[in-house]
């Protein structure tokens, strides 16, 4: 009692990347935190995202999963706050540029 599946030929060509991420290891380790507050928030956000990537890899391997999950939760909350701050700063800068 085996069923044969019919192959449906669906092809799609993606012409541009769905998400572009800067090379985090190069730009973040070399660049010091700027004296401009908006840029320092953005750099902090990039660093938190990089750390999240490392911690998530540890979650996949199962190393210290309880400790890692709590750190991931804290980093996600920190990233959310930084995103809100960066957005507010971007809106503020956009308003200044329009005036």
How would you describe this protein?
It comes from Mycetomoellerius zeteki. This is Cyclin-dependent kinase 2-associated protein 1. By secondary structure, the protein is mainly α. It has a domain at 37-98. The chain is 67% helix and 0% strand. The chain has 3 helices and no strands. Helix 2 runs antiparallel to helix 3 (65-98). The chain is elongated and about 55 Å long.
Can you tag this structure with a few keywords?
Cyclin-dependent kinase 2-associated protein 1; 99 residues; 67% helix; mainly alpha; elongated
Overall 3D shape: elongated
Helix content: 55-70%
Q: What would the average pLDDT be, to the nearest integer?
A: 75
Q: Which stretches are poorly predicted, pLDDT < 50 over at least 5 residues?
A: none
Q: Rg from C-alpha positions?
A: 20 Å
**Helix/sheet category:** mainly alpha
Oligomer: single chain
Secondary-structure element pattern, one letter each: HHH
Percent range for β-strand residues: under 5%
**Major sheet size, sense and barrel closure:** none
Give the strand tally: 0
Number of helical segments?
3
Q: Alpha-carbon distance between the termini?
A: 73 Å
């Amino acid at each position: 009692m085996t069923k044969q599946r019919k192959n449906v030929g669906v092809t799609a060509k993606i012409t541009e990347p769905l998400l572009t991420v800067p090379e985090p290891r190069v730009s973040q380790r070399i660049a010091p935190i700027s004296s401009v507050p908006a840029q320092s928030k953005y750099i902090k956000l990039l660093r938190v995202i990089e750390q999240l990537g490392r911690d998530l890899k540890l979650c996949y391997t199962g190393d210290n999963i309880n400790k890692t999950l709590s750190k991931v939760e804290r980093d996600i909350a920190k990233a959310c706050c930084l995103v809100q701050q960066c957005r507010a700063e971007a809106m503020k800068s956009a308003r200044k540029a329009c005036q």
